[in-house]
Amino acid sequence: MTRAVLTLNAGSSSLKVALFPEAGDLPLATGLADKVGPDGVLHLKDAAGGTIAAAGDLTTHAGAMEAAIASFRAQWPDLDLLAIGHRVVHGGADRAAPVTVDDAVLTDLERLAPFAPLHQPHNLAGIRAAIDAFPGVPQVACFDTAFHRSHPFVNDTFALPRALYDEGVRRYGFHGLSYDYIAGELARTAPHLAEGRVVVAHLGNGASMCGIQNGRSVASTMGFSALDGLPMGTRSGQVDPGVLLYLMDQKGMSAGQISDLLYKQSGLLGLSGLSNDMRTLEAANTPHAAEAIDYFVFRCQREVGALAAALGGIDALVFCGGIGENSRQVRARICERLGWMGIEIDHAKNAGNDRVISSDLARTSVLVIPTNEELVIARAARAAVGLTKEAA
Ligand code: AMP
């Protein structure tokens, strides 16, 4: 019997899947359904990177999920699916851990959809589809917000009238599954750092930073939505709210148009006029591409400083995410102006993508740790069905 747990990460037009054995860190298979809809495609790979034949109805998320499972069953005819773990963007103000989904939980998570209208409905549709397709298999929701529930009030609030805080207008923070993984890896491999003050830079198409002290999130650059903080592939990062008033009052833009501008047309794409992709910008030889990277680097430097202030100092800086794990140039440039906080990288180690890239004499360690959100979800799913002692 191949006993396994499935992880699902449902986006607006994509569905990431991974099949994990009942123990161990390596998935049996991973896959991505992209452009879910009339032009949907599904790619599945086994642990050795070999292609798993996949076909089916890719016009909906439910269809894509069933197509992936059918392909896994063809590959492992004795597959016994023990639990399904889901990435859910928003768990609300109180959920600090994964939860096994029942009707009451689902209703409560639906209530949070207005706080994350672009993501939460897709995540919940994924859960509903999984319940329909696999009745009786436990469904476990893992939240991007959960890791940040330890923030003190000053990092949890805006200076708006109190009633708005009370109805949920707060700084939730996101990318929590990634930070959870990094905190766990630090505890496992560098416990002296894990007990200290760490800034983690999750720099990918979505980008944020988190200040962690003794394994607990103290502050994050993302706030009420996944728009705040650092510039991202197509998202603006922090903007003066006065700009939004200007766009509404003077340019007559609707909420939908502003949402589109902030989420889809800004960030690296908006500044460069070329691409949301860091690799493309690094290879491009245009002044606007260079300025987009300059701005990204500058905001990263600023936010490391701000989070170090929130932590009362810094013992380690950790890079993860597609840019953080791969772009030597961006890592080196961010660290260039952080010497005043004891950060100094060893350029040979940085060029080699080593795990520790700080120089031997530097006061502050700098690490590169590939993140693994899927594994965090798989562990929670295992815990929910009693395979491990982790909470779910
Ligand atoms: P993610 O969302 O974590 O998958 O990260 C995607 C981002 O990582 C994109 O901007 C990619 O261009 C960037 N990226 C991936 N590999 C590299 C690389 N070798 N050099 C620079 N950027 C990279």
From TrEMBL:
Cofactor: Mg(2+); Mn(2+)
EC annotation from Swiss-Prot or TrEMBL: 2.7.2.1
Main location: cytoplasm
Pathway this chain belongs to: Metabolic intermediate biosynthesis; acetyl-CoA biosynthesis; acetyl-CoA from acetate: step 1/2
Family: Belongs to the acetokinase family.
InterPro entries tied to this protein: Ac/propionate_kinase (IPR004372), Aliphatic_acid_kin_short-chain (IPR000890), Aliphatic_acid_kinase_CS (IPR023865), ATPase_NBD (IPR043129)
Binding site residues for Mg(2+): N9, E373
Function: Catalyzes the formation of acetyl phosphate from acetate and ATP. Can also catalyze the reverse reaction.
Site, as annotated: Transition state stabilizer: H175, R235
UniProt enzyme class: transferase
Active site: D144 (proton donor/acceptor)
One Pfam family it belongs to: Acetate_kinase
UniProt binding sites for ATP: K16, H202, L203, G204, N205, G206, D277, M278, R279, G322, I323, G324, E325, N326
Cofactor note: Mg(2+). Can also accept Mn(2+).
CC terms in the record's Gene Ontology section: cytosol
Binding site for substrate: R87
Name the UniProt record assigns to this protein: Acetate kinase
Organism of derivation: Frigidibacter albus
Compartment list: Cytoplasm
Reaction(s) this enzyme catalyzes, per UniProt: acetate + ATP = acetyl phosphate + ADP
Superkingdom of the organism of origin: Bacteria
Keywords (A to Z) from UniProt: ATP-binding, Cytoplasm, Kinase, Magnesium, Metal-binding, Nucleotide-binding, Transferase
Record GO biological process: acetate metabolic process; acetyl-CoA biosynthetic process
Oligomeric and partner information: Homodimer.
GO molecular function: acetate kinase activity; ATP binding; magnesium ion binding
